[in-house]
Amino acid sequence: MFARLSVYTLLALSICAANAFPQYQSLAGLSRDELDAVIPTLQFSPPQAPPGPLADDSTKLINDPAHPHLPLKDGDIRGPCPALNTLASHGYLPRNGIVTPVQIINAVQEALNLENTFARFLVFSTFLVNGNPITNLMSIGGATPLTGQNPPKPATVGGLDSHNNCEGDTSMSRADFFFGNNHDFNETRFQNLINFSNKFGAGKYNLTVATELRNFLHQDSLHNNPQFSLVSPRLFTAYGESVFPINFFIDGRQKDGQLDLTVARGFFQLMQLPPDFHRHDGAISNEGFETVYNKYPIQPGSNTVGVNTYKADLTSATLFQPCLRYTSFVNNNIKALYPNPTGQLRKAINTNLQFLYESTLADNCTQVFPYGRD
Predict the structure, then answer these.
(1) Which is one GO molecular function term here (predicted)?
(2) Whole-structure pTM value
(3) Which residues span the domain enclosing 72?
């Protein structure tokens, strides 16, 4: 494989990699042999095996002296996920917003009590699209040189701001990507949550409110966003987003499923845990999403030629097809970003794909191997 590269060329690439291929510059345009030579010189960090479930998942104090809320420093990154923003601002994640998959899993389990399998599926499906497999780093906001030199295009390493995976249309607190800013808190969007909570929840956010608000957000994007899209995997995260505040933003000692709006604003806008906040009592995942879906069921799809032209996408997984969601994600989304990875990049992607598959074992899905088994 290296026959066409002289020993002197390889030596020069090894010594001068930092100058010839500066951090954050894409490797697009290099030949196969050049990529095989350069990628091993990058700051490779092998994937870490994900942690298991918490030994003790009972409720406990989370807003404690070891995790104070601190204001952002210059350069700190935040993005479209209120939960990760809040955990970074309290030090459960690195405060600069640059994280590893294992750090996220540990943080969401420890601080919020996300069920382990659910946490691993969310984290590795997000990381494989938005993170850097070479450095094992991801931004919880936008693209940044802090995640290291990018793999070859078409990989983007765009962080959680990347559209239509974790972030996507019909957000509760961020504008649709089409309107320009899909990552910063949007007061107009949040006012919808407040208004619907007052109308349907007596001033609290609950499953009834989540159901009505989800339908409103869908209709709003349908009528106003000509590029509106709601297909897998964003379909899954959109409905998860609706019930997430009920499952994870309510104090674990409170059992009524009613989220106070001041507490909600603390998470969504201020990135701050309420005083004396205790995590959920017992590990929990996506409870309640069926209730939100069943009153206003929709098929995955998108506007095709402007507003109000929604057409169902019969190739997309629905909320109740976990194995199709997994196989389509790997064969379509990941292969599109990494059509022919080699060397350490290929090994890192395969390892992360294995971690992702292991989070689907309860669904009895057939594992797919887009880059072989090793």
Answers:
(1) metal ion binding
(2) 0.88
(3) 49-363
